[in-house]
Amino acid sequence: MIEQAAPAEVLYEERLGAGRRDWRWLPVIVVIMFVAVLPVLVPVAALAWLYNVLRFRKTRIRVGPDHLWVGKRSVRLCALELPTLGQAGNTWPWRHLNRRYLGANPIWTSDSVSLRGIDGGKRYWVAVGTNTRDELVNVLENAIPAARARAEAAGTWAATAASMPRQEWYPDPWDPTGQLRWWDGSKWTGWTAPTPTDEPVEGSPPDGTPDGTPDGTPDGTPDGTPDGTPDGTPDP
User: Fold this and answer.
1) Which domain holds residue 183?
2) Which of 34, 60, 90, 180 has the most CB atoms around its CB within 10 Å?
């Protein structure tokens, strides 16, 4: 859902507008553009900075008991998949035209959070900058399961097989060019396999317990459509 009324109870709130200290990034950007890129692009970089300052000056991230807001756009927490939790990257400018894209990742924030989900058969993508990532992640890790339990009890949301990609070998999000990693249908596992050169890796991983999972959090889930073969699977 989008543009829901603001929550009466707020579990988390953060303003993304640039503060006085954040303006220190402007001369850094100008110097980098002048020295390392092209001097002629310095005015373009400065204008882009000013555009983003104006764009995000009133933007807030808010997490309520049942919704997450980024500015005026919102998504139901029950629809977001915690295994897709990762760090946000810069995306194509026109993605912001999609009203199911909840994006606000200004350069002056120190970290970021990305989440994806499906609600009513439609994909939602949250990609926000934050200066308090640990706090935001902690709130989401508690609020999403609670919101899902309430929605399931009320009959307003039900898990579907299409909500996540099927279990399969996919390019390892920690090392996408070097190996494959087993996705069990809900999360990444510790099982890995070399990227095939002639024949694709087929079947399930071996029995037993893997040695563990890599440090860090992968950026999202395997790409692709839930009702088919996700993009990024090894070519046959």
Assistant:
1) 165-211
2) 180
